[in-house]
Amino acid sequence: MMGGGDVERLIQLLSRLPGLGPRSARRAALTLLRAPQTRLIPLAQAMEQAAHSVRTCSVCGTLDSSDPCSICADPSRDHSLICVVETVGDLWALERSRLHPGTYQVLGGVLSALSGIGPEDLNTASLLARVSSGEVREVILALGATVEGASTAHWLQEKLAAHDVAITRVGHGVPIGGALDVLDDGTLAAALSARRPAQ
Ligand SMILES: [Zn+2]
């Protein structure tokens, strides 16, 4: 036990964050507690604010403090072009690169028998609704080149086949290892520009 229950609890919660084991959690806790005014309190306030305001966009599935999100609500985006990604992290990666002028659909996962993720677990209803509305001309499947990513892309393609919409996949000559958010901008740009009709 270090510093009593509150400190211990803070360390425990921090250690559950990705990339932070118990040792880094203790260092982070110490950094926060040593500078309450400049670090601990602003962080606590930002977390509380986020907990109250951040929600899932009912159109695309990303996280934002407004619904529809700032991307879906932006009239300068190309709403006829939808890029389908697995996670919000993938969307953030594409947004950082400023390569995609359209909107997104965040599936929230990929089909995986191993992890028990089936079609009903993926956020696709709003995608089908958008495509059915007739205002979408192209759906870009930017899923990882894993077995699960490929089978999810194939499954989506079949679901969308009945609609008058072009379906493309990001270039497979580039090493997408399953997570777009670890790619550098150059590789992302290559993946997007090398997209080709899905088949
Ligand atoms: Zn949205």
From TrEMBL:
<keyword id="KW-0862">Zinc</keyword>
<dbReference type="Pfam" id="PF21175">
    <property type="entry name" value="RecR_C"/>
</dbReference>
<comment type="function">
    <text>May play a role in DNA repair. It seems to be involved in an RecBC-independent recombinational process of DNA repair. It may act with RecF and RecO.</text>
</comment>
<dbReference type="Pfam" id="PF13662">
    <property type="entry name" value="Toprim_4"/>
</dbReference>
<keyword id="KW-0234">DNA repair</keyword>
<dbReference type="InterPro" id="IPR034137">
    <property type="entry name" value="TOPRIM_RecR"/>
</dbReference>
<dbReference type="Pfam" id="PF21176">
    <property type="entry name" value="RecR_HhH"/>
</dbReference>
<comment type="similarity">
    <text>Belongs to the RecR family.</text>
</comment>
<keyword id="KW-0479">Metal-binding</keyword>
<dbReference type="Pfam" id="PF02132">
    <property type="entry name" value="RecR_ZnF"/>
</dbReference>
<feature type="domain" description="Toprim">
    <location>
        <begin position="80"/>
        <end position="175"/>
    </location>
</feature>
<keyword id="KW-0227">DNA damage</keyword>
<dbReference type="InterPro" id="IPR000093">
    <property type="entry name" value="DNA_Rcmb_RecR"/>
</dbReference>
<protein>
    <recommendedName>
        <fullName>Recombination protein RecR</fullName>
    </recommendedName>
</protein>
<dbReference type="InterPro" id="IPR023627">
    <property type="entry name" value="Rcmb_RecR"/>
</dbReference>
<feature type="zinc finger region" description="C4-type">
    <location>
        <begin position="57"/>
        <end position="72"/>
    </location>
</feature>
<keyword id="KW-0233">DNA recombination</keyword>
<dbReference type="InterPro" id="IPR006171">
    <property type="entry name" value="TOPRIM_dom"/>
</dbReference>
<dbReference type="InterPro" id="IPR015967">
    <property type="entry name" value="Rcmb_RecR_Znf"/>
</dbReference>
<keyword id="KW-0863">Zinc-finger</keyword>
